[in-house]
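Translate sequence into C-alpha cells.
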Amino acid sequence: MNMLRLTLTCVTLLLCSPLLAFPKQSLVPGGIAIIELEQDMVDARFTFQDKPVLVLPENGRSYAIVGLPLSLKPGEYFISGRSEHNQKLVKKFFRVKDKQYTTQRITIKNKRKVNPNQQDMNRIIPEQKRKRAAARYWDENIPDVNFLTPVEGIMTGSYGRRRIFNGQARRPHSGMDIAAEEGVAVKAPADGVVIETGDFFFSGNMIYLHHGEGLITMFAHLSRVDVKKGDSVKKGQVIGAVGATGRVTGPHLHWSVGLNGNWVDPALFIEPVP
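Result follows.
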C-alpha cells in the first residue's frame, strides 16, 4: 500500500513543472505543493488541514496549489476533496522533507517593540485579530499567480529565518525583506482587492491584497499607503511606498504571500534575478 501511495505521489506531483505561469514547487515547510487533478475532479473543492485550497485550470487540466506552513514536520500529507458529480472522497498524497532555516540576531533600539507594555498590548491584540482575519480571506475568483516583484531593491533570503530580537527568540520570519530607499514605489504583484490596511504596532503601515481563492499578499513597514480597504487594484499599480515604520532597523519592504491560510516563501512566485 505504501509503495502504491508513493507511486501515486510521483504521478500527481509536478516535480519538474512545465507550467511557467505557476509558482515553483518546493516540498518543504514554508513551500508549495503543486498537485495535478484528474479531469473528472475539475469542479472539486479540495482542503488541506481543513482549509480550502487554491485550484487553477491550465490547458484543460486542474492543479491544486497548496501552501505548506513553516511549522509543518517532515512526512506524508494529503489534500482531500469531492467532485460535484462524484461525491466519493478523493485524497492526493505528497511528502514533505525537512529544511533548516538560518538564524538572524537583530538589535532593536526601541525596547517596547520587543517587550510591549500593557498599553501597547491593548493595541496589539485587536490588530492581531485583524491580521488573522485578513490571512484567512477567501472568495471564488481565480487569481493570476504570475507575480511581478513588488519593488525594485535588494531581495534577501530572509523567509523562514529564526529571529532573535535583543537576545530573545521570536517567531520565524514569514516574508521576504527587500531593501530599498524610503519612498520607492511598491506595486501590486497581480490584480486584487484591498482587504485590510492600517498602521500596526509591529508591522507599521500595512496593506493586505486578496487575489482570489485565498491567495493573499501583504506589504509592511510602508512610508505611505495609497489605497484603501475595498479598492480594486491592477497588476503593476502603485499601492504605497517603502518605509521604516513599525519594528525595523532601516527602510525596507516586508512582503508576505499567503496560501490556504499559510505564509509561504514569496521567492517561489517570482523569477530569480539573473
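Note: The chain has two domains: 2-96, 103-269.
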